[in-house]
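Problem 12. The chain below contains 93 residues. Write out its predicted structure in token notation.
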Amino acid sequence: MDIVADNHNFQIKMELFKGEPYIHCEMHLWSHGLYKKYLKVLHDLKVHLKEQGFTKMYTALKKTDTKGIKFNNMFGFEQVDETETQVILSQEL
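Solution.
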């Protein structure tokens, strides 16, 4: 996985899976200021991916990770698929 953003509050990683960009976020602390920083990083990543010809980005979470699912919904990700153990969310670029 390539690291997109890394600081002591959050880390965003991205990888290509089956030719599509998947992101993973680890949030260590939360505040309004960090929300703004995260939005900026997410926006820059979306612009970069769109320039590369992608139209969507994805994330995969365990079905039991309700907090993670809610977090990703807050940033515009919507569920598009699910397996026995995971949900797949995506967002238009």
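Discussion. Strands lie at 2-6, 10-17, 20-27, 56-62, 78-82, 86-92. Students who got a different answer should revisit the alignment rule from Section 12.3.
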